[in-house]
Specification:
Helix 4 packs across helix 5 and helix 8 packs across helix 9. The chain starts with a helix and ends with a strand. The protein has four domains: about 70 residues, Membrane-bound Lytic Murein Transglycosylase D, Chain A (Roll); about 50 residues, Roll (Membrane-bound Lytic Murein Transglycosylase D, Chain A); about 60 residues, LysM domain (Membrane-bound Lytic Murein Transglycosylase D, Chain A), CATH 3.10.350; about 130 residues, endopeptidase domain like (from Nostoc punctiforme) (endopeptidase fold (from Nostoc punctiforme), Alpha-Beta Complex), CATH 3.90.1720. It has eleven helices and 15 strands. By secondary structure, it is α+β, with helices and mostly antiparallel strands. The strands form five sheets. It has a six-stranded antiparallel sheet with strand order 10-15-11-12-13-14. A three-stranded mixed sheet has the order 5-6-7, with no helix packed on it. A two-stranded antiparallel sheet has the order 1-2.
Amino acid sequence: MKFFNNWVIVLILVSTGVFAQNSVKHKVVQGESIYSIAKKYDVKESAIYELNPNVKGKPLQLKTVLMIPAKGKQQVVTTTEIPENHKVSKGESFYSISKKYKISVEQLEALNPTISSANLKIGDELNLSKDKIVLVPKLETTQEKPTIVVSEPSEGTFSDNEIVHKVLPKETKYGISKKYKITISELERLNPTIVDGLPIGTELVIKKKEAVLNVVNEDNKDNFVERPLDADVLAKADFLIGKASNNLGARYRSGGTNSKGFDCSGLMFTTFQELDITLPRSSHEMAKYGFEVPKSKAQKGDLIFFTTNRRGTISHVGMITEVTENEIKFIHSSTSSGVIISSSNEDYYSRRFVQINRVLN
């Protein structure tokens, strides 16, 4: 009996040693998700869930210790180990490949002028040799948006162009809104910096010719006709994804619109302003802009909406960064982890999905 007990102890110690050699411990820090951790260690999300079944379907908490399959640590591509070519596999895009090898989308496109993001196919071989990179100059629009600066316009007079008002001493939001026959909320939407005050000399946008936004038509979803996105739209989507990704790890802050902290709609509002697209300041109102598309036709750069409250109304928004056959990845600011990239397949989000809107057109 004593011999049997000793033998069992030896087996347990050996099994523990083998498990430790095949996995490593990772403590969750702010801004991380299962998706980002899987990318960091170059393993599949399913492999992490297999070793950590207790975290599946739940919001990832800070300081949670996860067991990660150790094999991925040897597979991470470093900046000094870029191969000559890359063969495209299922679910990959120019954006995900550029991130993998730490080069820009523009460089990747310049190296592969005969292949575009829109027609990227499984098995395509992309050139990655940096000594052949030719930087592509940014396209600039030939037309400039005219701006009319108005100090004392006739009451109720509007132009098709942008109207700007310079704040004079003793002026108030109420007085200005009455002068131009707009609401105070509309004035604050167009000028988010004045929510907390109205400094003298501030130039206020009174009416803006918006770049893209159209009110959602309820019939659009059913009558949706898929059209291939042109190179310009794809480039804009990659640009927005890059801008939003610069904030990965930023904390969640209610009402936040800068690197000190974002709420979900604040991250989208700030990101789309980089393209002079002014979105509403709440996820509920954002869901009324652009046009709704079926989930099966989602594209990167689209807005994705969820309901996270008990009323069942839209209360959370993110931007799609990657679409595969069975999964949608999106960047957003979550209350628990700040700015992260999450998956539509995560149980929490799959049960709360509402709709997808396209605002890049």
